[in-house]
Specification:
The chain has 436 residues and is of the alpha/beta class. The protein has 2 domains: 118 residues, no CATH class; 274 residues, Vaccinia Virus protein VP39 (Rossmann fold, 3-Layer(aba) Sandwich). It has 17 helices and 11 strands. Strands 7-6-5-8-9-11-10 form a 7-stranded mixed β-sheet. Helix 10 links the parallel strand 5 and strand 6. The relative contact order is 0.11.
């Protein structure tokens, strides 16, 4: 049918209750919408069927990952315009209402009025989800087995792929930017060194890095500060990569890499613990346990550096729901907490919280660098994993950059001490002078 773009624009504006801020190009080459705006490309009718059977974010995500939808023009601009209408609506009840309105257009009793739209969809059979989608979890969350499966989904997609995105530092967490003109590698090195200084690492001390990734933290700590380090991860691919890096650096006598859950560590005590971008995987139901386990693994006077993404607090915390796109395609079973709840859980476990540093703007800069790396190596990244997986990462990282920039989420370094009963924390009087 001619002018599919015009009809889609009209439908979208009726459902959203506002003017569509992006231009639409449909499979029949028709276009509609504001001139000069980013273009939302609807490649086929299957995109509409995905939205019909899963209205809202999951349907949009499936269409994007499968390549049924695309964006031409500035990706950040397009996501920013759409986020203001869909994901960041000031009306809490708006998304369910919109989903109901979209479904209502396809009920038998209104087909006469919606005949033109139905003709756009074609045979309304539900398309299969893209292969990159994780199946919904059955059974209890955050068991030893389910956490291993969730971590594997995210991290065991190929070390070569992550090398393209992360660059030589192989650090998959927020960098620390002394200046926006610094390189990604410099900013990641500065982040690792900042953590080492906050932990007060000294030669001969014993460090546990929880969720060690590809080994960058333990390597930096052993090389620069002379510690003996244990790095634990649930990813077999990360562990193999990290062990090779350790061997190549000649540090096998100082660093041990294990495939191990933090709940399985038994060889305490440690002088310091770093947990960098790992606590997001723990889950609300397990966070008290997480804090208690780390407290027990530290010697009295030992320090914990917990580096963690945080969401904004809600008036009713029971209404919190995990983002469907992230849960199915990025971090299955991942959950975010406000920084206040994180600090409270650490204190409940016995820690003394000594410092909290917000790095929200730093993560936005980091994510934009990762997106640029992915786009620069797009063809190879798609070959190393799949075109769908590359599209997942591009959308996830670009949308996350905007979320940090708009203060929808943040990231914080919480420094805590297992202060002895005598009360001597061992912290410097000028705690912020980490360079001293």
């Amino acid at each position: 049918m001619a002018d599919a773009a015009g009809r889609l624009t009209k439908l979208a504006e009726e459902v959203l209750g506002a003017r569509l801020p992006v231009r639409i190009r449909a499979w029949d080459r028709s276009e509609a919408g504001p001139p000069g705006a980013p273009v939302l490309v609807v490649r086929n009718r299957r995109a509409l069927r995905r939205l019909l059977f899963k209205p809202g974010e999951l349907g949009l995500a499936r269409a994007w990952v499968a390549g049924d939808l695309d964006i031409e023009g500035d990706l950040y601009e397009a996501l920013g315009l759409l986020a203001g209408m869909i994901w960041e609506s000031p009306e809490p009840a708006a998304p369910p209402q919109r989903a109901a309105a979209l479904r209502a257009l396809f009920r038998p009793e209104v087909r006469a009025a919606a005949g033109e739209i139905l003709s756009l969809v074609g045979l309304p059979l539900p398309p299969a989800p893209p292969a990159e989608e994780a199946r919904p979890r059955r059974g209890p969350l955050h068991t030893l087995r389910s956490d291993r499966q969730a971590i594997s989904h995210h991290y065991d997609v190929g070390n070569d792929f992550y090398e393209l995105v992360l660059g030589p530092s192989m650090v998959y967490s927020c960098a620390y930017w002394e200046s926006p003109q610094a390189t990604l590698e410099e900013a990641q090195r500065d982040k690792l060194d900042l953590i080492c200084r906050k932990l007060g690492l000294k030669e001969g001390q014993r460090l546990l890095d929880v969720g060690c990734g590809w080994g960058s933290m333990v390597l930096h700590a052993a090389r620069t500060y002379g510690v003996r380090a244990v790095g634990i991860t649930l990813s077999e691919e990360q562990a193999a990569y990290a062990r090779k890096r350790v061997a190549d650096a000649g540090l096998t006598d100082r660093i041990e890499i294990r495939v191990q859950d933090y709940r399985e560590v038994r060889d305490d005590p440690f002088d310091a613990i770093s947990s960098i971008g790992m606590a997001e995987h723990v889950g609300r139901a397990r966070y008290a346990e997480y804090a208690g386990v780390l407290y027990a693994l530290l010697r009295p006077g030992g320090r914990l550096l917990n580096h963690q993404i945080a969401r904004r607090p809600l008036a009713d915390e029971e209404t919190y729901r995990v983002d469907e796109f992230i849960d199915r395609y990025v971090f299955p079973d991942g959950e975010l907490s406000p920084v206040g709840r994180t600090a409270g859980a650490l204190e409940d476990a016995g820690f003394e919280v000594r410092d909290v540093e917000a790095l929200r703007e730093h993560y936005a800069l980091t994510l934009r660098q990762w997106v640029a790396n992915l786009e620069r190596h797009w063809d190879r990244a798609a070959r190393l994993t799949s075109p769908g997986r590359a599209r997942v990462w591009r959308l996830y990282m670009a949308a996350s950059a905007l979320s940090f920039e708009r203060n929808r989420i943040g990231v914080n370094q919480v420094l805590a001490v297992r202060t002895p009963e005598a009360g001597e924390s061992g912290m410097p009087l000028r705690a912020r002078d980490w360079r001293a």
